[in-house]
């Protein structure tokens, strides 16, 4: 081995070791940022829940205000109707009072007539008493000068008797009518006064109810203003958390891009080392050709293939290889889960037993963790032909690689499992043309690059 080649290998080793150390340290930063992002997302979800609660309270308050306002409107109409009825009763009372006053005048006139009739009857009674009563009428009849005079006298006597009877009948009728009218107007007036009192009591109750509803309406208005302020404060907090969440996402993406660039440089260094090794082998082969005795041995040693550990699945040629053996149960795209349509951002591969999971391409592990949705999951960044890719291996029973670790295509990174939000043992594999993000905006169909 010449000195120049040894120095090149030493420098490459230092770069590789230094790169791995930086990657591990950087990934620690990615983990910290991811934890911050999860904390912010959790806090934002909590705040948004409070905002929804405040919205519900505000809507309930508005509904109550509307109901109270409708009740106030109804009470207002009832008050207007009651006041109108009170006015009508007052008018009836005034009319009845006027009728009573008029009746009183008629009663006075009637009383005067009765008094006059009483005096007349008294005079008749005295005259009859003084002159012998009915015998006096006989004298009148017997004193007639002729038959014609007698007839006239009989007629006159009958007229007087009839007049006296008529006066007495009128007297009785007028007295009865007087008593009847007095009773009627007194009952009517009492009834009107009672109705008016009832209406005034009702008005007082309605006024009290309306005042109570108005007070409650003001309380609801005050409460709504307070709820609106609280909602605005929560919305501001949510907006600030969204900004922080977006900022952390940007930091994570930048760190992932930096790690992807590191992977690209490592890939370039690997290719450079392979090229140096190829040159060395070519130089050694050329030197070996000068000695026929050692040619066969040298050629045999240089052409012996390196043994590699068997892996499942078989490693494909090219930049990419299939990450696991098994049946494809769900493809990339829209499908149905629990009766509802959803977007499936990867490919699901299912198999029974202890099934190895391998890296789909050379890269660096940027995250190896457990999440409630992905279960045991590994995120890797790759630099292939100058482009950055990210692969995700989810629901594994366990992971065999750690943060910042460099991994070769086909190298085992874990075992297929059923962890997280899963419905049976399988691998959920995602491929992103660029950094991974929660919106999955860079997700592509893995079949574009890998033969499944």
**Element-by-element helix/strand order:** HHHHEEEEEEEEEEEEE
- The helix content is 55-70%
Count of DSSP H/I helices: 4
**Biggest sheet architecture:** 8 strands, antiparallel
* pLDDT < 50 stretches: 1-27, 292-311
The radius of gyration computed from the alpha-carbon positions, rounded to a whole number of angstroms, is 59 Å
Oligomeric state: single chain
The shape, in one word, is: rod-shaped
According to DSSP, the number of beta strands is: 13
Give the distance, in angstroms, between the N- and C-terminal Cα atoms.
43 Å
In round numbers, the mean pLDDT is 79
Task: State which percent range the strand residues make up.
Answer: 5-15%
SS content category:
alpha+beta
List keywords for this structure.
single chain; 452 residues; three-stranded antiparallel sheet; 4 helices; rod-shaped; disordered N terminus
Describe this structure as you would to a colleague.
The protein is of the alpha+beta class and 452 residues long. 65% of the residues lie in helices and 15% in strands. The chain is built from four helices and 13 strands. It has helices spanning 3-131, 134-142, 147-288, 292-303, and strands at residues 327-330, 333-337, 340-344, 347-350, 356-358, 363-371, 375-384, 387-396, 398-399, 406-407, 412-415, 427-432, 443-444. Strands 1, 4, 6, 7, 8, 10, 12 and 13 form an eight-stranded antiparallel β-sheet that branches. α1 runs antiparallel to α3 and α2 crosses α3. The radius of gyration is 59 Å and the shape is rod-shaped. It starts with a helix and ends in an 8-residue tail after the last strand.
